[in-house]
Amino acid sequence: MATIDLPTVLTAGELAANQNTVTILDVRSPAEFESEHIPGSFNVPLDQLPQYAASLRDSIHRPVVLVCRSGARAQQAELALQSKGLNGLHLLAGGVASWEAEDKPLVRGVQKWDMFRQVRGVAGTLVLLFGLLGQFLNPAFTWGAIAVGFGLLFSAVTNNCMMAIMLGKLPYNRAGGCDVRQVLSQIAASQGAPASAAD
Question: Do residues 127 and 100 make contact, with C-beta atoms less than 8 angstroms apart?
């Protein structure tokens, strides 16, 4: 993987200035990627990164910038790829949200809720439901609200959200899917290199 003098964490402006010399990997769900993404970026969902780490290393010959909605999943992707021997990775500070906030161009499709909006919606619904059930049927239901609250706290402390992982497996978030082998071929073609065999 080639290296150029880039900061480890790039602002939207720095990424825009170097967009033609880097490979942008968007690690969000396929549905989120289809909803909106940075032009020229490639979608490899976070849960599939470890499986294809060696193929990514062999297919990419430019510096890699990892992107998600806000930056949290990109940091998880960085750790996952580093554990497989890929180093010299870069992150977009604030993710696609910061790119959008700076009025940078986005490829837009059918609009869907991003993952953390879904998490907030489901968590809020569960807390409300358990609270109402505890108030009107049986106080034991309030333990459900406590469990959701504990899960959210655990997510904040570990920067790893189990609810987001589970929601990411729903058909809504898999719409269109992501064929990582095809993405690897597209990356290689964009760099004028032969495609690597999949892991």
Answer: no
